[in-house]
Design brief:
mainly alpha; two-stranded antiparallel ribbon; two-stranded antiparallel sheet; 5% strand
Amino acid sequence: MNLTLPRTSTGTILDVATQLLSYFGLERTDLINTSREALSIEAAVFQAVTGRIPNAFTRDPKTAELLLETNEPTQEALAWISAVLPTDAPHDPDTGIDDHLEHIRTWVSTPDFFTGALPTVPEVIGVVLRAKQTAESLAAVPAQRIAA
């Protein structure tokens, strides 16, 4: 798949991420599954932003997570995905920071309470497309919902 980069629009980044997930498939536990070339949501977003997947994504998960956390366009896109999920992101009360990476990983790899099924690839792509539409419609990522 040939990509023209860099991408700066969050909507464009999320659109390309859906194309990558459609083409390569969805990886639920690792960032990348090299045996079948499947990508996690996070890896697809990173590749949509940068046009590449560093070796750290297959060999060094801690470095890969650092790359994800320090790439601002990737973080912005992941925050939008996290914002449209039906659950709230885990929140660190000491720092006030939501953990969007953990939120997305938990959602994609945890069976639904009622059905016992994992989100399907079309459902995951639908969430990413909803995040794209939301990012293009709003000026900022919505604030976390606060339980009353």
